[in-house]
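Write out this protein's structure.
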Amino acid sequence: MSNQNPEKAVVLLSGGLDSTTTLAIAKSKGFECYALSFDYGQKQKSELNSAKKIAKQFDATEHRIMNISLSDFGGSALTDKNIAVPDFKQSDEIPITYVPARNTIFLSYALAWAEVLESQSIFIGVNSTDYSGYPDCRQEYITAFEIMANLATKQGIEGQKITVHTPLINLDKSQIITQGLSLGIDYSLTTTCYQADNEGKACGTCDACEYRKQGFKSAGISDPTKYQ
């Protein structure tokens, strides 16, 4: 990849640990990064403040926050005020924190922006190891979306193949953290908690918090998370 004309990439950035690591990886590979976040009706908005700081720290060429309203549909503890975010519980069932079709919607927006930018690369921080209960975090899903993307776009059918990059797909949380630290990430800036307060302080009891805590412990790294 030429340093004079770096390839553009759209990077989905939630402000959490995984998406931040994904942005850092894309940047380290020489991509010119366009960060894309969503105010989708989630109960906690502090992750968007984190996303703004992270996009700036990693010198994203542009950072857009799209306003969409998945809360109008509800059906998830993250968007429906009538559904509480549960404490961590080990289970093989798809959790109530799953937001129906969220990654498909987010990736579709990323695909539209990528085509406008004439970019052939989209980065998403999905991880099948920790979130195996989420159907839209699996490699099979990403492969299917990539096939669709190349059938559904002008640049795809004209031979400019679109690739959906998933650098974290087979990593566990401790491996993700170790790689991110090597790329200069300050994880105290990230917000992972499903019910963080307005200052971004974590609850410490939800699934996302538990996986994050386990990740830092397994990596032998002091947890920089600010808790309520």
